[in-house]
Amino acid sequence: MASISTIAGLAPAPTRHAGLIAWVEQIAALTKPARVHWCDGSEAEKAAIVADLIDKGTLKALDADKRPGSYYAASDPKDVARVESRTFICSAEEIDAGPTNNWAEPGEMRTRLDGLFDGCMAGRTMYVVAFSMGPLGSELSALGVEITDSGYVAVSMGIMTRMGSAALEALGDDGVFVPAVHTLGAPLIEGQADVAWPCNAEKWIVHFPETREIWSYGSGYGGNALLGKKCYALRIASVMARDEGWLAEHMLILKLTDPKGRSKYMAAAFPSACGKTNLAMLQPTLPGWKAETIGDDIAWMRFGDDGRLYAVNPEAGFFGVAPGTSRNTNQNALATLATNTVFTNTALTADGDVWWEGLTKDVPAGMTNWKGVAHDPASGEPAAHPNARFAAPASQCPTIAPEWEDPKGVPIDAILFGGRRASAVPLVTEAFDWEHGVFMGSTVASEGTAAAENAIGELRRDPFAMLPFCGYNMGDYFAHWLALGAKADPAKLPGIFFVNWFRKGEDGTFVWPGFGDNARVLKWIAERLDGEADAVDTPVGRVPAQGALDVEGLSLSEADLATLLEVDAEVWTEEAGLIPPFYVRFGDRLPQALWAQHAALTERLAAVR
Ligand code: GTP
Ligand code: SPV
Ligand code: MN
Question: What is the DSSP string of 253-289?
């Protein structure tokens, strides 16, 4: 590996950014790696790191015909998802982290981190990964540098961000960057053999919002370790956005074009593993309608000079949930990950390819499961971990919109909120106005998934799908959304909608077919924006009027359709009653306007009961 220099501190820094060099030297002195390598983001560099990871057993090359340029990793069984209980927002004042984040006093946390990071990279290579979140050179983009002792992270950052020389160049001699330090927390002493997936039983995912710093210890997985993603583009960026008057959101971005050629841009916030990737890549089942992809997880949005809200996808790749992805549900995702993809915690087939539950009806024989042992279909255990993921370049997506890297972003026409709700919540509801939409966003609740440690299936509040990702007091976050709307021209604000693909019938199965048929809901939304579709007012918002939702060709009974669109005042009175216990947690940081929205909802419900 010629490109990797061998002596810490003597690595020639490919930058004249004195602040960056000093920081890298300081972190090297603390973490004591065996080598320092400044990533340039080249193909040759990726090949060298991959070769090293294959040597170590971290990666397996997949069959070169079936899955060219692609690799497989299986994590430590205890390192499979984000660890919210170990995630901290260390603002100077506890109240500024708010009731929904873990907080620790910054001085105490720094002392703890100093101890944890002392010598933590011994025996390993320290990679210096400069990256841009957002298209290089865009005013909506921002830069970061992740230092990591994981080659897997360096390779993944190469897929998920614009990484290497170009980002270093964009930094110039004195550009601002968010410093992010990541370690597996698994130093190697002289002669100690490495393991395939080094990590530490103890994990710390720490953010200092005021100084815009990230420190991550002990995990090699996803949002814990690829620090450009949740840690920077959501937790730190949400703080930057509050201070600078923009929005950093857990949202997909898509473009929908109707048969007349009229396009709309939509952003949608659903909690983790609740359908963003799938909606971002949907294949409409409606003739003549076209959907294109701009982003699948994160949106940075800012009002333009024309008064409209513009969004960019800060990422360059998709880190998507594998299980459930199939030719029937998301053929565009499958095409995206045909090549140059890193798979983690899927199953491995006997012929050197990957598999996961839902990919095919038939379960291939002779697979190795994500734990590395022969898969036994009779065991009832899945072959892939439910949070198994793929990391694939966004540019490979067949439906990627030509403007996905437009530095000025795309003007958003509609914002959607949603979650997994087996009952109560209609298929689609339109907010009466921005403030009502913010109320809707603030009350999102969803059933838990495998993307985090919380109990699967249990209902929890996840306002704006940002509960795990808001880097400050969520009461202030709601106020920020209200303030941006109040400043804007109402005619230019996006419409706000609430969707729920996950309503279940009495037999426990989903009533709505979902996936490509979600285009039917998007069609109604687009027509509402153009003033062309009818709606009826209910206490919770506007739902499609009879016949306004295009269900032609669906095998949906009248009763099913009624279930999907029903707003039951009894049920909703109970729902509304659950909001105050949640709101009171924010004390006086909860905007009065949201209490007023709650009171108005209660009144509207009382009027129809
Ligand atoms: P993160 O990457 O964790 O933020 O998740 P995401 O919101 O991008 O979720 P994703 O699209 O990967 O969906 C996760 C799961 O939801 C998968 O198992 C999908 O099969 C399932 N899903 C997505 N869309 C639908 C839908 O319309 N209907 C149903 N029933 N399931 C869906
Ligand atoms: C999520 O959990 O919302 C993800 C995956 O998108 S991770 O990057 O691991 O956070
Ligand atoms: Mn996500």
Answer: EEEEE-TTS-EEEEEEE--TTSSHHHHHT---SSTT-
